[in-house]
């Protein structure tokens, strides 16, 4: 068994920018995050199986977001945002040289307060933060120093912009490697 907890702070500097296509000049404030995470990992010896679960919570202050519209690209500060979630991972041996591995994650991210030029986006889901994602893989080791790992990853639909415009939403997707 392995239990861990972390409490971290993050920082991204602010600055200024210019869009030559639209002529827009913009300034953004620094972004700050406060992250909390608890994780539990276990190796189940009778099966030689590994399991891990973690939960997390992040608070943003002055979150920097893409506020573009068409060719008018710029970055804006979104006030406050919050994201919460959890992940589960596993690795199970099927044969001596073959394992099944995978994971599943759930994320709930929202703007706590964000009033922009285009409107009030408070309460909207965070852009590019799908509500769920997952993976499933086979790990085959025919030789000690070689691993072949075909896998599939997937994620749920997610908005691309703070406005959550349905026309700009990314559909759910799967990727096979």
- Indicate the low-confidence ranges by residue numbers: none
The percent range for strand residues is: over 45%
Sheet/helix structural class = mainly beta
Instruction: Write down the Rg.
Output: 21 Å
What's the N-to-C terminus distance? 31 Å
Q: How many beta-strand runs? A: 15
Main beta-sheet annotation: 9 strands, antiparallel
Number of DSSP helical runs: 0
Outline of the structure:
With 177 residues, this protein is mostly beta strands. Helix content is 0%, strand content 63%. It contains no helices and 15 strands.
Overview of the molecule:
This protein has 177 residues and is mainly beta. It is built from no helices and 15 strands. It has strands spanning 2-12, 15-18, 25-28, 31-44, 49-61, 64-66, 75-77, 80-95, 98-113, 115-116, 119-120, 132-143, 146-148, 151-155, 173-176. Strands 1, 4, 5, 8, 9, 12, 13, 14 and 15 form a nine-stranded antiparallel β-sheet that branches. Strands 2-3 form a two-stranded antiparallel sheet. It has a two-stranded antiparallel sheet with strand order 6-7. The chain is elongated. It starts with a strand and ends with a strand. 12% of the residues are buried.
């Amino acid at each position: 068994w392995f239990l861990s907890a972390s409490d971290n702070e993050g920082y991204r500097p602010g600055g200024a920018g210019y869009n030559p296509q639209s002529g827009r000049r913009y300034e953004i404030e620094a972004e700050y995050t406060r992250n909390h995470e608890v994780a539990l990992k276990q190796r189940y010896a009778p099966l030689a199986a590994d399991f891990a679960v973690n939960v997390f919570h992040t608070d943003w202050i002055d979150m920097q977001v893409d506020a573009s519209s068409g060719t008018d690209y710029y970055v804006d500060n979104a006030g406050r945002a919050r994201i919460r979630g959890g992940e589960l991972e596993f690795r199970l041996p099927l044969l001596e040289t073959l394992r099944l591995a995978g994971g599943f994650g759930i994320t709930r991210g929202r703007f706590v307060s964000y009033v922009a030029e285009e409107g009030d986006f408070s309460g909207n889901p965070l852009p590019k933060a799908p509500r769920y994602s997952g993976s499933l893989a086979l790990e085959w080791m025919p030789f000690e120093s070689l691993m072949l790992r075909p896998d599939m990853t997937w994620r749920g639909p997610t908005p691309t912009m703070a406005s959550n415009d349905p026309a700009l939403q990314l559909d759910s997707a799967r990727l096979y490697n």
